[in-house]
Amino acid sequence: MNQAALVPGAIALWAMTTPLLGLSPLLAFADTANHWAQACITELNRRGFVTGYPDGSFRPENPVTRAEATVLMLDAFREVPVQRSPLLFRDVPTTYWAHSAIQQAYAKGFFSGYPGQVFRPSQPIPRVQALAILVRDGEPTPWPLARYYDDADQIPTYAQRAIALATRKTYVVNAPQRRQLRPNQATTRGEMAAFLCRALNIAEIPPQYLAGIVTEPYRVISLPGQLNSPPLFNSNSPELVRTDGILLSTFPKTDRAVPEAHLDYAFEGQFGLFSHHIARAETATDASPPLYQGILVHNPGQTAVTLEIQAAVSYVSNPEAPFIVLPDRTLDPEGKVFSGPGDRASSALLRGLRQPQFPATLIIPPA
Questions:
Q1: CA 107 to each of CA 16, 62, 66: distance values in angstroms, whole numbers, following the listed order
Q2: Most exposed of 203, 210, 261, 357 (fewest Cβ within 10 Å)?
Q3: Distance CA 28, CA 59 (A)
């Protein structure tokens, strides 16, 4: 929202959403204390999706077999319906410990076998296969994989579509080198846990290991041409909003429960406001929690303030402004090209658009 005020005032941006479950403070396994996926493994264990060994270890660097992966998929995605009849694999006898799980995983479409009606249950599952079973649906995505992976030429042809979808969904976790996919390397227990956390929308993976996401330190720079003369109130964070509360405030610090949460800045004249936040469901079957954002305007003066709203828009990522990949340059004379809600909102504001739900003026009474 882009606004202009006539006298000084302050703003607080607040959000309300359905709370999400947090991470258990207890360490589930002794050997994951220093592992990069420790928080994810602990949370999956708390939910009953992964277990350890009798000695209390998890062994995050051990490989995951195809049979073990079927059990993990069935536990994590129990709601997926049966899509086809079970198939008896020649190398999976009825006495095999994972016979039932392999039958169910095949019937639900998680896995297919190899030529000759074999499953190879004891084979360590390659990373490319572990990711492919997590993206069972979706439209083909023509993503240039070499842009994200230095070893993209090692991705098998049959898996390129699946890896593109997994990258777009941010399921791919590469630690410690984000640009090294290692597609044909065996998946470790820690890596499989990380893939599941991403697919289940459990935000416990360090962002520096997420493929397809660029993380840069925040910088404040001045632009030429006086483009930054009107102050901009910017609340824009990739962190998930999990609880109700103030997102950003310019209110005075005095008499506040948390003074450092307020910027103590009074707006005067023309100013801008931009807010971009995310709320997301924990599992694939849950509906995304509602996220309501509002603006609190404080008038500390003795006379009423007229707030003229010159341009104001609001978009949600789906279905109004989904994140899509765009070419480096494209013409946009009508404002119909965008790659997400923030991009679409910025373009609309620069064009002076004010959506009907926003009034042209607001009268703010004195304090």
A1: 41, 27, 15
A2: 357
A3: 12
Among 138, 144, 217, 206, which residue's Cα sits nearest to residue 178?
206
Residue 176, preceding bond cis, omega within 30 degrees? yes
- Determine the distance from the C-alpha atom of residue 223 to the mean position of all C-alpha atoms in its chain, rounded to a whole number: 30
58 to 61, 70, 338: CA distances (angstroms): 9, 18, 44
Q: Hey, what are 124's tokens?
A: 């360590």
For β-strands 291-298 and 305-311, DSSP reports them as: unpaired
Answering whether pTM is above 0.70, one says: no
Rounded to whole angstroms, the Cα distance separating 58 from 29 reads 6
How much is the pLDDT for 317?
79
Could you tell me how far CA 100 lies from the centroid of its own chain? 33
CA 107, CA 105: separation in Å to the nearest integer?
Answer: 5
Give the CA distances from residue 19 to residues 76, 180, 196, 207, 242, in Å, rounded to whole numbers and listed in that order: 21, 35, 21, 21, 5
pLDDT in tens, 169-213: 899 999 999 999 999 999 999 999 999 999 998 878 988 899 977
- How confident is the model over 208-255, as pLDDT tens digits? 899 977 666 667 776 666 555 788 888 887 677 777 878 888 888 888
Contact yes or no for 340/317 (Cβ under 8 A): yes
- Sketch the domain layout of the chain as residue ranges: 2-19+215-364, 30-209
What number of CA atoms fall less than 13 Å from residue 289's CA on the CB side? 23
Structure tokens at 162: 């699946």
Which residue bears the tokens 């592992």? 35
In angstroms, the CA 37 to CA 39 distance is 6
Helix intervals (H) in the chain = 38-46, 66-76, 99-107, 127-132, 160-168, 189-199, 341-350
3-state secondary structure of 339: coil
Collapsed DSSP state (helix, strand, coil) of residue 185: coil
The amino acid sitting at 252 is P
- The two tokens of residue 318 are 């789906």
Kindly state the tokens that stand for 180. Answer: 């090294």
- What's the CA angle centered on 234, arms 232 and 236, to 5 degrees? 160
Query: Is the CB of residue 111 less than 8 Å from the CB of residue 84?
Result: no
Q: How far apart are CA 68 and CA 71, in angstroms?
A: 5
